[in-house]
Write a structure and sequence with these properties.
Layout: H1 19-42, H2 82-87, H3 100-104, E1 114-119, E2 125-128, H4 129-133, E3 139-146, E4 151-161, H5 162-169, E5 177-182, E6 202-206, H6 207-210, E7 216-221, E8 224-225, E9 235-237, E10 250-256, H7 263-267, E11 291-294, E12 305-306, H8 314-317
């Protein structure tokens, strides 16, 4: 038996700070430092608001925590529980049932991970996930995300505007669209055996949509690193569009002159258009989209909510579609 004899002046066991208390104190100090830095930077004249974020960009002492500061783009609404957000989602690469991603996504290896950014850009290259996590200061945004099944959630995403990455690679004058391709690895993704669509999953935005501050790259939620079932290690979030537009587990971002052919449009062109803006006035061919049910808030037999145009972001993004027939360009 090895017996350790304390040296004179050593602290007594009762004087040693417990590990969890120490970790929580470190987290609190980091948050306080971030908020103080933001206040100091905001006081500087002529500084753009988008540069005012000061937050840790690496996991915290617990290994998965991210130190963030609130975003002015957040909605002041009750957020959906973390349990619901991480156990009830669509990620067909892991199965068609909404519980399948939580059951099967644990096998996904997210390190190392690279995202290729190329096409109509002057400085295309491969970015590691570490580079992407530190490309721009992290923000916490609560984005109302509604999906085609007429259910919705309020989720505190952690990330930054996609425009930061796009500006870094310098789009050419020919760039008009942005195409997003997700991972398709049958060894890790059992859902790829399904013929529901052609793999890999591809989505797209117009360049002006992609440059809007609300279009973001998310690397976390609820102040922690993004769980696998929610699109780890990096995903797209476009809160004014239906949920399938927000591609998960990205491996390539390509700027193009021509409009990309997206996965759901290829699979069912009459049902899923390129724009997929939340629009209560345009019904899905098989159901109404005029109302929605928010997960975790309304009981199954309670009345649904009225769906809001552009998911409630009409004042921010409505000008992107001025003069368009949104019943035709759905």
């Amino acid at each position: 038996m090895l017996i350790r004899i304390a040296e004179p002046g050593s602290p007594r066991p009762s004087e040693v700070t417990p590990r969890e208390v120490y970790r929580e104190r470190r987290r609190w100090l980091a948050r306080a430092a971030a908020v103080t830095a933001v206040a100091a930077v905001d006081a500087l004249p002529g500084l753009e608001a988008g540069r005012a974020w000061s937050a840790a960009t690496s996991p915290g002492p617990g290994g998965s925590a991210l130190v963030t500061v609130p975003s002015p783009l957040s909605v002041m609404e009750r957020q959906t529980s973390r349990h619901d957000v991480t156990t009830y989602n669509n990620f067909y690469e892991f199965g068609l049932d909404k519980g399948d991603p939580a059951r099967h996504a644990g096998r996904l290896n997210t390190s190392p991970w690279t995202v290729t950014v190329d096409g109509e850009v002057a400085k295309g290259r491969d970015f590691s996930i570490e580079e992407l996590r530190t490309l721009a200061p992290l923000e916490e945004r609560v984005c109302r995300l509604r999906c085609v099944e007429a259910w919705s959630m309020v989720i505190p995403w952690v990330g930054y505007s996609l425009s930061a990455l796009l500006k870094a690679v310098e789009p050419t004058p020919r760039a008009r669209y942005v195409e997003f391709t997700t991972l398709a690895d049958p060894r890790q993704m059992p859902g790829l055996s399904s013929s529901v669509m052609k793999w890999p999953y591809v989505e797209g935005l117009r360049l002006d949509e992609a440059l809007h501050p609300l279009a973001m790259l998310a690397v976390g939620l609820y102040g922690e690193v993004l769980p696998n079932q929610n699109g780890a290690p990096i995903r797209l979030v476009v809160p004014w569009k239906y949920g399938f537009k927000s591609a998960k587990s990205l491996v390539r971002i390509r700027l193009t002159e021509q409009q990309p052919m997206t996965s759901w449009h290829l699979a069912a062109p009459r049902e899923y258009g390129f724009y997929s803006n939340v629009n209560p006035g345009v019904d899905h061919p098989r159901w109404s989209q005029a109302t929605e049910r928010r997960i975790g808030e309304d009981g199954f037999f309670k009345p649904k909510r009225k769906t809001l145009m552009f998911n409630g972001y009409e004042s921010q993004v409505g000008q992107l579609y001025a003069g368009m027939d949104l019943a035709r360009d759905y």
